[in-house]
Design brief:
By secondary structure, the protein is an all-alpha fold. It contains 2 helices and no strands. Helix 1 packs antiparallel against helix 2. The longest helix is centred in the middle third of the chain and has 27 residues. The chain starts with 31 loop residues before the first helix and ends with a helix.
Amino acid sequence: MARSSSTAAPVAEPQSPTGLFPHPANCHYGKGRVGEQLRRIVAALAVTLGAVGIHHARQGTGRLWAAIAGTTLGTVGLLIAINVMWALRS
């Protein structure tokens, strides 16, 4: 007697357009309230340390372009995190 298989065909997981980074649906890190708070803390820390880097670069220690780039990226990350939290408020 032939055994019938009741398994369904595997469902493909969503992929990112470039394939370089995991799709947000497959990413388990940073989900929920704790992950969002952690992102905001990390982004705020990046802005603060970037501002300190700019201060020291203007005094001659370090590269100004690197400090400005880091501060800009931290600011963008902080704004994105705040906007996401603002949009998810009920």
